[in-house]
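Q: Cytochrome bc1 complex Rieske iron-sulfur subunit, please. Structure only.
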Amino acid sequence: MSDSSNLPGQHGDGTGESRGAVDLSAGHHLEASPDRLPAHFPNPGLPPHQHRHGDDDPAAAKRYERQVASLFLMSMVATVLFAVAYFAIDDQSVITLPIIGNVLALHVALGVTLGLSLLGIGLGAVHWAKTLMSDEEVVEERHPQRSSEEDREGFVAILEEGAESSQIQRRPLIKYTLGGALGLFAIPLGLQLVGSLGPLPGNDLSTSLWDSRINGRKRRLVRDPEGTAIRLSDVTMGSVFHVLPEGIDETEQPLNEKVKASVLLVRLDEAKIKSARQRSWGIDGVVAYSKICTHVGCPVGLYEQQTHHLLCPCHQSTFDMTDDCKVIFGPAKRPLPQLKISVDGAGYLVADQGFAEPVGPSFWERG
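A: Structure for Cytochrome bc1 complex Rieske iron-sulfur subunit:
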């Protein structure tokens, strides 16, 4: 059994009572002593407010206002320089920096100007708060949480008092320069989010190597990557060929030309083809479609022979090859463009014309 006489803060005499105990029920306070803690601590209060130069000296306040405005102006100038550097500096220009070595000049210019733009806004806001905004401490007593008309009116009054305390209405120079700095800072964000996406495709996705002829004749369909021509008899029921146009040369044509011209060739049961146009653009059930998904341009290369569905592995867009390759599942919104094919005199499959519509995902200029 434990001995209650050994509990801290008590001096027991074996009777279960503590000598020197004070009845707290009557509101008495314990006096501080080495072996006792006070029941209540005195309110230390708030330290006296230390006035700053700007609080009492209008000339100092005006000087601080000019300093804050200068920082916001620095941010504005840096933002403008960011935009100038974005358009004026070649993205392949290289400069050599100490320790770092060779870096792209554009990256350095954008990083420095964007950093100065943010620094000007941040330092200006801090200097404004430290020198001009009210810094008097206030005590807010705890109260039950409720929402009443009086509370709403009080909240509005606090906001108005805060606006008055910030002196933003009395300091128009700060108000206008802060607005200019924050407004211009949207330029780098806009350039990065919109401008860096690259130019609109224009007519680039509407044309491909299938639109041109080679040596005055229609281009044959050749296997990728072997480059061998395909006869109609080579395409058996259910077989799949990854196809490129004859004459493609990766050393002469850019990679995007190969991508745009990539085609999937499949033989279907003609009785299962639902579209008359699809049947007329193929031959004996052999049809050719662009491999570029109309969602975000991933390669569509997974063919399910039983359902005749094409699946994009990136986001699971699914196309029905028996019905103009229309979308039956997934985020894609357009069917895959079909390539019109026929057979030449030697029995090889050729492209009669290019795709009837642009390949790849939708874009602003697309109808």
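A: Brief note, in case it's useful. The longest helix spans residues 58-88.
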